[in-house]
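Issue: ligand-bound run for 5-O-phosphono-D-xylulose - logging full I/O for the record.

Environment: standard queue, default settings, no custom constraints.

Inputs:
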Amino acid sequence: MPSYRIAPSILSADFARLGEEVRNVVAAGADIIHFDVMDNHYVPNLTIGPLVCQAIRPHVEVPIDVHLMVKPVDRIIPDFAKAGANIITFHPEASEHIDRSLQLIRDHGCKAGLVFNPATPLHYLDHVMDKLDIILIMSVNPGFGGQSFIPQALQKIAAVRRLIDDSGRDIMLEVDGGIKIENIAEAARAGADTFVAGSAIFGKPDYKGVIDAMRRELAPA
Ligand SMILES: O=C(CO)[C@@H](O)[C@H](O)COP(=O)(O)O
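Outputs:
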């Protein structure tokens, strides 16, 4: 039985009360804080950077999982590591040298991972499995919260699950985009073990109610 992790995306949190929001969602049972970084270049939206990561770091002890939707990636990696990130992922097509970017993340003491958009091929995994701690499958096109889950992502999750199992390595398989109480079990059955959810959690007043319901859905998955 895999251990499942729920990772609320603070993209849908109230930014005016971010410290309180991350404390509340961890108290409600979140395992990880998912931190979406958008640059208005790689994706058509602009969000938050290392200063905000540093600001929330003292409020929570759970890992902060930084999803870089930026291009180029390398020059911002050390800043996020210094700001308290524990996991840093990036999109392979946004990196000039994927192996070097993964190594840079690891050299700064963080877990490293690649992110795959719905149309990004999995061949980017060739030759780097030994440097991966996490693989993130996007089930929406990146850039915005509140979009609908793209069902084709399930096949991709299943394909990555096979690759991870064949590798014999302990690599987290995260899914992100449109995850809700209603579809989290399906994503788990496909092979995901870590679930990013933004609007489904922060869009409701009772964070614990949503997270508990997600865990109930995962129990028989
Ligand atoms: O990275 C992204 C979007 O680019 C995600 O992390 C979203 O923030 C998830 O939001 P919901 O789809 O769960 O509302």
